[in-house]
Write a structure and sequence with these properties.
Four copies of one chain form a homotetramer.
Chain A: E1 2-7, H1 12-22, E2 27-33, E3 40-41, H2 42-45, E4 56-58, H3 62-68, E5 71-74, H4 81-90, E6 94-97, H5 107-114, H6 121-126, E7 128-129, H7 132-141, E8 144-146, H8 150-164, E9 174-179, H9 194-197, E10 202-203, H10 212-223, E11 230-235, E12 242-249, H11 262-269, E13 276-278, E14 296-303, E15 306-313, H12 317-332
Parallel strand pairs in A: 1-2, 1-5, 2-4, 5-6, 6-8, 7-8, 9-11, 13-14
Antiparallel strand pairs in A: 3-4, 9-12, 10-11, 12-15, 14-15
Helix pairs in contact in A: 1-12, 7-12, 8-10
């Protein structure tokens, strides 16, 4: 039985993480902490947890956390995680960080997109990017995971087969992404009030979103070529879920035979993956089918010179807490789907 | 052509008020003000107004407002209005106050529900409660209007015929009210974030809402007896609109003949009212039918000893800015529906 | 391992029932049927089930069902169930019927509210009303359960303590109920199209809803007096969840001491219930906290002569499929919360 | 005063058209018709119109329509319009057809996308495509208008400046379009039920939507080159509004100076247009700003080799009924914004 703690538990990802771990047969949650006005039963903060867990949420006390936990999940805002991770790793704890702090290997790019200098280059080197479908072997050995961003998870899984097989023109990748509002976190802000979002839809951070370099880093690695995607995120008037519609040009070098049956190619690439589901010809994912689940659904349309790929995930599950538990399962040698199906 | 100003224009009621006034043939908006970081084109604050109005929104400058305007609308938070109204009235401006500051005649009750002592008893006496269907004659003479609350508008119009004719047991009135989220104003708050409201529904301020005494005051006046309603407001996951389901016991003293055909009784009571629509037998209002309009729709069901009345308004129109313009029309002797149909 | 079948699986309750049973350690789903154009993988009908279940959904074949199943859930429209139940019971199958066909003991009332004569009086007598918190002992012995309606579940649990202890005036009970749209089922109809529901709210079947007699039957039983509630259902623009705001007058005969601390009284009444959660003083349920779960949350406010009780459930879980599985757990002697927490 | 009729008034476009025409000072609605079970007051069909219009909606009677109306709007399903238009034009009526029947000049393409052969080639030739910003001069002379589709309106206005000036690679145009649900019309269908759309988002008719050829036809005309866009529509969980995110490659032949300041280029192109609003640098449209209005908002981002253009309209107004009235204003020589601002 793993003794797990969650730091930053009062955000949306933290709330979902509790829910998943409570149904996981190999985990006991032993410590919950967050920025709170006063120590309080977690079931008072989240009344939906009443009758399910009796644990007090306090301000993070690292000494206590280190003494109680085997594994610590960080569901903290960006730039906060890197102040805490070194102390946990020094105490030999396993750590899964859901923030962006250890995802980008290039600290200049980190600074450009997150606005601050990186403060923990030592551990940055050892952080494993926790996308199991691509880096499972590294995750098996890892004690410190940088859990992927939500948009990158859907984008990378949608593009990995084509990038790895060098079937596409890497400069042509356009990702038109749409996310539910929990992706923006639980911070009071006029722009996220119900009447500002409901019955509205808009793009934001047009081609300057901080998840672009994360996608570039992984796809460049897979294709062994530098590349930059065009990435436009939009805000959907719904709670949970991401759908990305991706447009690419086939590589001129790609032999037609190679791209003949793309759905088959994807099915083969993801043959052993329990959480990636490839749609049949003419079928496409919808957010409804993945909400509440750790799946990534992918549909593909061959349009001659272009390919359209559509992928969908739950931003809080496969895009955050579910993937974190999937990583945990791999790190500890549990069945990968344990507690997640 | 009336020269009008709006103080507190950046809230939801202010935004809707601009929209209505821009289509009013007898009004020119000449001054817009609110708590703003810096003077700014109103069309930059509300891009939907681009190409429709070119006016800069500044911090309120009362000297300027008094020199430019004939009529001033206050769309301010409660307790702020009463600091400004005296200065406008002193300058002989006509004033329509959309806040609650001048609605309650009893300052003890004001203090109990709004948490502060009233600061302008002098003008409180002269404020006319701007519900045209009940107080039209007073409004005609008035230069200072306390524009009714949204919940009270729907409740009073639903109950006025029965209260005025003493057909109901006044202690039995139960108002189960449901409002869209714009009713809560445009203030950043965790509880009003999109994911906290969407797919949720809940009661709040259960039987302690500050609109109860406003309803009591008017209905007590109409029935010439003290009375207190039971009032439970709820928050609907939608932007605009209020629906109230009201339950009353018939008065034992009421002769059966009097309550025989309630829809007819209501139709007669509101015969000359352009903005009250009484539903036929078996039909009931819905929010959809009143959103964007200044109507109050009312349906009635006779259940023997009990009567169920259901009323619906747009909280920002008949429940705020539309009613304010209706009051303006009456004050200035314009056709009452001008700019509102 | 119980071998279970679901007839009528393509509706909302059926879909949720699959989801719950797939996570139940003592059940194997062996037969899925519904009115379908052609036999089809259930994961094609509900793509969210892909990778989770491989079973073909066919038209119901009772011979096959009887030969394969120990237990059959009926998620059929009203009036259809009673054509099928006799054949299942004759074959000695255990049956949990989610329709209304066997809930009302009085066949005249059944005819009045459902428009057809009852066709299976023999089994009607033996059907046990499956509300575990009230009828657990009967359920333990039962082989045929009439699973309660969604509105009645929330209403009865909210009122049972007061009715059983005779603390309220039974004629005064007013239930103002609000339900999400899945309560209306998955039948194409203009009135249920997205734009007809979204941004709208309305009452329907005002005081003539078919769930009223179900509530009356149980509360009359508990209080040992005939009674009829006033019941007004409304349609919320959200998918899942019911919230009911209930108003009652205290019985004049009730000693003040008895109703002194109502929250305590409720907590005591439901002390051993795993799925009923009583809110503390000043706290009230919200739909968000029960969606996806088998809980019924209840908050109580003492208003002197009146009491306000607010209850919330997920209409598809505690109001349908979750309660059905709770009943199954009791019938088979499993821990009552198995697969439900 | 124009005497206008609307055939097919019970759909969403018809409903909005009544609303607009009721506020138009130069129009009197004299005939309303649609497929209806029996003649009925339009205010019974749409209770929101009560107190605003007293007119009976009947089955279309062309003799009566021709005798009463100067101008007829057709808000009919595709393939129905072309059965009626000839009879109206023969009677010398002016006609604005909101369906797709007369938009595509190539009848083979019409057949491919709408599944039937065109039945009125004679009038097809004379139909003017009613996009005022592009074809104003033709509209002035026209007596028969094919009112544009909703997606094409937003797409063409977004791309017209670049296409007309030959600044882009025409084969590179990708239109990622998102529409509210009223775009699908008011027909009962399981897929459009509230719970199927709410909290969901999905693509449909991926690159095979019938609006693609309409966009191709106009852009090919503007650029004087054949071209085909990549077009993926998606369904948003909201009632009204379209937002399109469009990606194009700059033409290699385009001199850098030409595309230096794209917002300025757009502002110049649309300088005299009352209903096209170009956003400043770094600003982008949102659906909220155009709902209820006849505006098309456009924002542009220069990304080096690529350009991203985002446009937003209300699908029922600028995408249907508002544009129809704008066309009417032009045909009759009224100020173009009359009744629309």
């Amino acid at each position: 039985m793993i003794k797990a703690g969650i730091i930053g538990v009062t955000g949306y990802a933290g709330e979902v993480l509790i829910d998943i771990l409570l149904n996981h047969p190999e985990v006991r949650i032993v410590n919950l902490s967050a920025k709170v006005a006063k120590p309080q039963q977690i079931a008072e903060i989240f009344p939906k947890l009443q009758n399910r867990i009796a644990l007090i949420c306090t301000e993070p006390d690292l000494e206590e956390i280190n003494s109680q936990c085997d594994l610590v999940f960080l569901a903290l805002p960006h730039t906060v995680s890197m102040q805490i991770v070194p102390k946990l790793l020094k105490a030999k704890k396993k750590v899964i960080d859901l923030s962006a702090d250890y995802r980008l290997k290039n600290i200049k790019i980190y600074k450009k997109f997150y606005g601050v200098s990186h403060k923990d280059k030592a551990n940055l080197k050892n952080a494993v990017y926790g996308l199991p479908e691509i880096y499972r072997n590294k995750i098996k050995q890892a004690s410190f995971i940088a859990n992927p961003g939500c948009y990158p998870t859907a984008a990378i899984l949608a593009l990995a087969p084509l990038a790895a097989l060098n079937l596409i023109d890497l400069d042509s990748v356009i990702i038109d992404a749409k996310s539910g509002v929990t992706g923006a976190g639980r911070k009071p802000s006029e722009g996220l009030l119900f009447p500002e979002i409901n019955e509205d839809f808009k793009a934001y951070k047009v081609n300057i979103h901080q998840h672009s370099p994360e996608i570039n880093q992984v796809l460049s690695g897979l294709s062994r070529k530098a590349m930059e995607v065009t990435f436009v995120p939009h805000l959907l008037p719904l709670n949970q879920g991401i759908l990305e519609t991706i447009y690419v040009n086939k590589a001129k070098s790609a032999k037609p035979a190679k791209t003949k049956n793309l759905a088959e190619l994807y099915k083969k690439f993801y043959k052993k993956e329990p959480f990636v589901r490839i749609k049949g010809e003419g079928l496409f994912p919808r957010i409804k089918d993945v909400v509440g689940a750790n799946f990534c659904d992918i549909g593909i349309k061959d349009c001659g010179d272009k390919i359209i790929i559509i992928s969908a995930i739950d931003n809080l599950i496969k895009g955050a807490s579910g993937q974190a538990v999937q990583n945990m399962n791999i790190m500890y040698g549990f069945p990968e789907t344990l507690g997640l199906l």
